[in-house]
Every structure is written in C-alpha cells, then in structure tokens.
Amino acid sequence: MYEWIKALHVMAVISWMAAMLYLPRLMVYHCKAEVGSVQSETFKIMERRLLKGICNPAMIVAWLAGVYLIYEGGWIKSGWLHGKLLLVFILSGVHGMIVRWVKDFAADKNRHSERYYRIMNEVPALLMVGIVILVIVKPF
Ligand code: HEM
Predict the structure, then answer these.
(1) Which H or E run contains 108?
(2) Where are the domains of the chain?
(3) Of ligand 1's atoms, which has the minimum distance to the CA of residue 75?
(4) 9 marked as part of a ligand binding site
(5) CA–centroid distance for 133 within its chain
(6) Which of 65, 58, 63 minimizes the C-alpha distance to 3?
(7) How much is the pTM?
(8) How far apart are CA 46 and CA 68, in angstroms?
(9) Which residues contact ligand 1 via a Cβ below 6 A?
(10) What whole-number distance in Å separates Cα of residue 13 and Cα of residue 132?
(11) pLDDT tens track for 58-106
(12) Are 81 and 70 in contact (CB under 8 A)?
C-alpha cells in the first residue's frame, strides 16, 4: 500500500508543480494585455481553470498522501523530513500568493509588475530542487 500511495504522491506533486510553474508565467503575459481586452479575459479563464482544476486539487492530494507516508513510513523524527516540511510550507505559502494574484487579475486589480511575476516564477522551481534533494538523497 505504501508504494501505491507514494506513486499517487509523486503524480500529485508533478501536477502541483506544473501548475505552480505555469501560473506565474501566464501572469507575465497577462500583465501585457490591456484590461478588458479579449486577450486579458482569455488569460483570466486559463488562470482560473488551471488553479481550480489542477493546482488546488493536486496540492490537497500531495499533502494527504504525504502525511500518510510520514505516518506509515515512521519518518516523523527524520531530519530530512523536517527540512522538506519547511520548504513545502513555504511552497504552500507561494500557492496562497498565487491564489491571491488570480483573484486580483479576475477583478482587473493586478498589483504587480511583469518583472515581479518573472522573479516569483523561479521560487517554486528553487524550492522543488531543495525538496527533491532532501527526499531522495536524505542527507541528514
Ligand atoms: C505536501 C507536503 C508533502 C509531504 C508531507 C511529503 C512527504 C513525503 C514522504 C513522507 C515521502 C516518503 C519518503 C520515502 O518513502 O522515502 C515522500 C516522497 C516523495 N516526495 Fe513528498 N511530501 C510533500 C510534498 C512534496 C513535494 C512538493 C515534492 C516535490 C516537489 C515531493 C517529492 C517527493 C518525491 C519525489 C518522493 C519519492 C521519494 C522516493 O521514492 O524515494 N513531495 N514525500
């Protein structure tokens, strides 16, 4: 059972990361679209569907499966897990920021520049590098 849940966990994590990497990238282009234009309205639909259809459910499944793995695997006292959880909490915080940005764009009230979204686009990628090294290499 453990291996099956781990497979589910990795599938959910891949979907979550794909959405987390793509949403800020969409926003880089959304910034350039004039408010009220057909392009801007299309970006709104793309952002909403990606967030609600993939990003949110994938995060929930990744967390549920991950918590199961912690208990079943007896990892609760492992150093690598504590490091991973710290990074995953930050990743979940970035997820919350993305939710906020999608809502802002939906209301035509974007508060950030194209450059901001370009920089924020790198954050989930950097966190993912740390998370994968911690869980695969388990350096401590
Ligand atoms: C959402 C909260 C998360 C929790 C609670 C969690 C917890 C865990 C646990 C306990 C394992 C089992 C480790 C093992 O059996 O060796 C695992 C496996 C794994 N996790 Fe997570 N994880 C989470 C999110 C993530 C994220 C965001 C990523 C990648 C960006 C990730 C990537 C992986 C990978 C690749 C494995 C398979 C490791 C292996 O088979 O050796 N996890 N996770």
Answers:
(1) none
(2) 2-137
(3) 10
(4) yes
(5) 17
(6) 65
(7) 0.95
(8) 32
(9) 6, 9-10, 13, 17, 62-63, 66-67, 69-70, 73, 75, 88, 91, 128, 131-132, 135-136
(10) 11
(11) 999 999 999 999 999 999 999 999 999 999 999 999 999 999 999 999 9
(12) yes
